[in-house]
Amino acid sequence: MAAPRASVHGEWSSSLFFILAATGSAVGLGNLWRFPYLVGDNGGGAFVVIYLLCILLVGLPIMMAEIMIGRRGRHSPINSLRLIARDEGLNPAWQGLGWLGVAAGFMILSFYSVVGGWALYYGFEAFQGGFRGIDTDTAGTLFEGVLASPGLVVLWHSIFLLLLFGIVAAGVRRGLQRAVTLLMPLLFLLLLFLVLYGALTGGFAETLAFMFRPDFSAVDGGTILTALGQAFFTLSLGMGAIMVYGAYLPSRASIPGNTVWIVGMDTLTAIIAGLAIFPVVFSAGMEPAQGPGLVFVTLPVVFGEITLGTLLGMVFFVLLSVAAITSGISLLEPAVAYLTERGPLSRAGAAAIITLAIWLLGIAAGLSLNVWADVRILPFADLGIFDLLEFVSNDIMLPLGGLLIAVFAAWRIRSKTRLVELGMPPDSLRFRLWLLVTRFVAPLAVVLVFMNALGLFG
Ligand code: TRP
Q: Is the CB of residue 331 below 6 angstroms from any atom belonging to ligand 1?
């Protein structure tokens, strides 16, 4: 067996910082922006139940698999997969899985950064008191105005990416670790404040009923695909973000223990985001099914009406920005780590090149919301660039990446390697359960959902 490797990028100071970083990666726009509107659009409780099942049966085991591969390889996903495949006598083509991840990361970050830019811009507006007394029409016009303005979209997308660049260029300890140590406590505080406020607001009972009383009549194959895609997205799985963070995890740290923390905190945050957002929506007499505009249109109106609304608006959009930043850095890191490993570029040089490429792709995503609204890349899919990037990366590349990660970790590598990394006794129930789920349940779920989405079940 090969001697344990060291990461050339450095390691987290302890498990705690890994948990902060990975939770920072997981908790993001997916929790605060996407999850609430998906719940709203997909009928509430039934979606929540299916989503939780996907988290438990697919997300959790695959996260363990990703961290395990990362820590074993101690490199960027591409090189970790290449090195492990070599150690274990497997097909070198497995490194292609790392490339799939890098491609997915480029695509996700390009549109993620556009939305992250809106969060920054709205935070800025809130500080200026821009939501005071705003009504639904004005809020709608404000958001549409942002979308329709190529200048604004590109400006704030650029600022967002520049922040990520600064953090990632500074390295694992001085950049990533320092950023999450500062930002994550802030995030938890802001979230706590919001949910306390929500609990004291009129709409709380209605929210509980909406989120937890399942009505399965609205569920179809598409709902399940959406829930599965969201499970991958919210846990940052399927593209190597968690894998590369795992590469910096100290050898003595427990992978299963850390995973439970990360998954638990991410799930809790999504639920809390719903509990914080829907009460203000309901108490203002608004509709939950607002689509992507939910937090950008509905919430400003609510903030404009209620007491302490300006303060609350600032809190919310700062929270959204912080969460987006700590997620964005994890989308950038796998590619930057890879380019740094290749040499001769420094980390900062590598980060600059990758950021630049994503910036360009993000501009295309941003412009597709206004001046390029009619541009279609794929003749058979009626999706603009933004929606196409989101659909292909979220709904196809992440589940596919996750499927291959599960197969690699649970079928291909030696059982000894798995046991060493997971630190579980071979005949323990926990290990058997993980193996069973990662071998069969998780891959099968992905395949079935794919087949369903392709209409193979009629
Ligand atoms: N999980 C983040 C969110 O919920 C987004 C994210 C960060 C991500 N890194 C990722 C999604 C890697 C997929 C893959 O907002």
A: yes
